[in-house]
Design goal:
The structure holds 2 protein chains of 2 kinds. Chain A is of the alpha+beta class. By secondary structure, chain B is α+β, with helices and mostly antiparallel strands. Chain B is built from 7 helices and 19 strands. The chains are: A alpha+beta, B alpha+beta.
């Protein structure tokens, strides 16, 4: 064998060994060295945001639903990830919220807040089990259906709205791990009565899913 | 290519040092190495080309053509290692330098050969410089808008920044460092002066957020702060993939001081910019933010899109031509107007801006934005210079050979004396 060919074979063997070592190795601890200076006019990032605050405007992208006939789809707000109104005067409301449990309170607290908005006394935790259920995300969810004078505002941190007698509220509320979902419909009694079946129909179509770019 | 035997240096004088050098050059510049390298190159070209169908162009480039060693999961039969194209080109560079430039006898007959070899070294060097130093991204500009930042097509980065600290820099963790073969693997990032370590786990090349109402969470998948990470099929077109991961922040005492899920949200087909709404945490009494984004950098000029014009093939939405009329504003505030269209980029300040795309969803005549690919590549023109040099070198070589051939085969002159009677 010529000397150069022999040397080549040796180099090939050495190279193969190195490749075996390099190809199999994985670094699981890395020192961060790369950096950049802040951009011109780069605003400081907001601090202390929770997941919902970071993503709240986009939460619609995480849900699937079918808009019932006669409902108007409205832009999301900070606390209403899905927002609709309905009725000839558009005085019927339906919305869905998703809040971290830490900031959204518990099921009982929210139900009692809703009852209070309709002039009802608070209920005890033991009464939760007696509530009728709706099926959402294929699971039973406690719900309420109350008629009375509605004194609820249009959202947290808002000025209280004037009392609205002859109103009806249908609501459902449940916890997913770390998260509180609420669905709430309010409006004049007759209007809500006409749209109550659509509440249930909406719940049947509601899904929580991942959306790929292609699906959009 | 390696030295031709007729042009090799004459036998060395019996000086020990020269002999060792020549032996080394003889080995590293040998034809055998060149042949082995070429065979591997052919193999990698085949594997890389076939793999594009499943892995896509970007992944194939990373695995076969820009790597030093092909990652183990792509070895032949799973256990035969393969060198990456970067390693092969490095070997070829040394081989060419030793055999085609250093060992070759240098005279007027071989000058063309030497120039051709040098030009090939230039091509390889251009590739290396491009691999290590090229920056490429896009600038999407709406009509009337001015931009001075470029965003990478491919690479996701984690940006770590201290809020209100003495160090204003934004620290960058590249996707190649937190990309893992399995979501079960964790990569830890640290830096001197940081009172914490970042642990990246659950990496998904393509993923999206979902809320905890998702069946995956109800079935026990990890979730943080009301969100979980759902893997999506990896898109062969890498720029369509949206990286996602879980992030745990551990302070120096080993206590977890923060955790989140990092992912992108897609709305109306576009990635929502969450850059100003990062994950933040406190460690060692200092506040930090972490953000997942495409790598972004500033250019030393601004571009304002004055007008965008697209023309279509009749009766179709297929663009025939499209062009951007831009105003470049340099650091001194001076304005220059340019027209950028296909194969006619803007070149300035070491940057090249190509017209590559536009808003094709809007009706003709109402296109909202133009997309320019902006490249900074120190070796941008080296391939051109190398190719010119190779042409000159090969021309000299061929002409030299031709001249020698003609001279060798020239018909001897017929004597003027008349034939004998």
């Amino acid at each position: 064998m010529p000397a150069s060919l022999s040397s080549c074979c040796n180099l090939l063997t050495l190279g193969t060994t190195v490749m075996l070592l390099a190809g199999c190795s994985r670094v699981d601890r890395v020192e961060v060295t790369a950096s950049r200076a802040p951009f011109k006019n780069e605003l400081p990032p907001e601090l202390g945001l929770s997941g919902i605050q970071r993503y709240h405007n986009q939460a619609q992208s995480l849900l699937r639903w079918t808009v019932p006939d006669g409902w108007n789809f409205l832009p999301a707000t900070e606390f209403r990830q899905l927002n609709f109104d309905f009725g000839p005067n558009r005085d019927g409301e339906f919305y869905l919220t998703m809040l971290p449990i830490a900031s959204g309170g518990g099921v009982l607290e929210n139900l009692n807040r809703w009852r209070q908005q309709m002039g009802q006394p608070p209920m005890a935790e033991a009464d939760l089990a007696k509530l009728p259920v709706k099926t959402i995300f294929n699971r039973p969810v406690p719900s309420i259906d109350i008629s009375g004078t509605f004194t609820g505002g249009s959202g947290p941190m808002m000025a209280p709205a004037p009392p609205k007698p002859g109103y009806r509220m249908i609501g459902a509320i449940f916890e997913a791990p770390g998260y509180l979902f609420t669905l709430k419909m309010t409006g004049p009694e007759a209007l809500v009565a006409a749209h109550a079946p659509k509440f249930d129909a909406f719940c049947q179509t509601l899904g929580v899913n991942a959306l790929s770019p292609e699906e959009k | 290519m390696s030295a031709e035997s007729p042009t090799l240096s004459p036998p060395e004088t019996p000086r020990r040092r020269a002999g060792v050098t020549d032996r080394i050059l003889s080995v590293v510049g040998s034809y055998h190495i060149a042949v082995v390298v070429f065979l591997f190159m052919i193999l990698l070209t085949l594997l890389g080309t076939f793999s594009q169908k499943t892995l896509g162009l970007y992944e194939s480039l990373n695995i076969y053509f820009t790597s030093w060693v092909v990652p183990a999961e792509h070895w032949i039969f799973g256990f035969i290692p393969l060198p990456g194209m970067a390693l092969l080109l490095a070997i070829m560079f040394v081989n060419l330098l030793a055999g085609g430039v250093l060992r070759i006898k240098k005279n007027w007959r071989t000058i063309g050969n030497v120039i051709a070899h040098l030009s090939m070294l230039g091509l390889i060097a251009a590739g290396a410089v491009s691999l290590w130093y090229k920056q490429e991204g896009h600038m999407r500009i709406f009509e009337g808008e001015t931009r001075d930042k470029v965003q990478a097509f491919q690479d996701w980065v984690l940006e770590v920044q201290e809020a209100g600290g003495s160090d204003p820099n934004v620290y960058i963790i590249h996707e190649k460092d937190f990309r893992t073969g399995s979501p079960a693997e964790t990569t830890t990032f640290h830096r001197t002066g940081w009172p914490f370590e970042l642990k990246v786990s659950g990496y998904q090349k393509n993923a999206t957020l979902s809320t905890t109402g998702h069946p995956a969470v109800l079935a026990g998948a990890r979730h943080v702060d009301g969100y979980t990470l759902l893997p999506l099929p990896v898109n062969p077109q890498n720029e369509a993939n949206l990286a996602g991961m879980f992030l745990d922040v551990v302070d120096l005492s080993g206590q977890t001081v923060g955790q989140t899920v990092m992912a992108q949200i897609v709305r109306d087909g576009e990635v929502v910019d969450l850059a100003r709404r990062p994950f933040s945490f406190t460690a060692g009494g200092r506040q930090f933010t972490v953000n997942l984004t495409r790598e972004t950098w500033e250019v030393p000029f601004s571009l304002r899109l004055d007008d965008f014009i697209a023309t279509y093939y009749p009766g179709t939405r297929k663009a025939k031509e499209y062009e951007s009329h831009v105003t470049m504003i340099n650091a001194a505030g001076q304005e220059s107007k340019f027209r950028i269209w296909m194969n006619n980029p803007l070149r300035d300040s070491g940057y090249v801006a190509y017209q590559t795309s536009f808003d094709s969803d809007s009706p003709p005549g109402q296109e909202r934005y133009s997309v320019l690919t902006v490249v900074k590549n120190p070796s941008d023109q080296w391939p051109l210079y190398s190719t010119i040099a190779a042409t000159i070198g090969l021309l000299i070589t061929f002409l030299t050979k031709l001249t020698r051939f003609i001279r060798r085969n020239a018909v001897p002159a017929v004597p003027a004396t008349p034939p004998a009677a």
